[in-house]
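Bench notes, afternoon.
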Amino acid sequence: QVQLVESGGGLVQAGGSLRLSCTASGRTFATFAMRWFRQAPGKERALVASMNSGTSTYYADSVKGRFTISRDNAKNTVYLQMNSLKPEDTAVYYCNAVSSSFRNIYWGQGTQVTVSS
């Protein structure tokens, strides 16, 4: 079983930055693909960024050039650096881990990000 704990959310003005962190328990973190999702009020949860067990990354069009996903396997942690934040980035952000076999998927509890205009 893997537990994911997010941190780093908060209230920021438009144009500001935040860095989210997600720390995983367990010894197989390096083999997991890690993803960040977000869910705004009244909307479906959507993929924001992902990073496989190597260095390949994916970004939603809405965050390209502003957000950066990275991971530190020695710390069992994945990060989401968010720059040039916009009010439309306001959402609960969730960390997600997928095992290499795709048989196990884990979610964090979510962290609120609010961007004021």
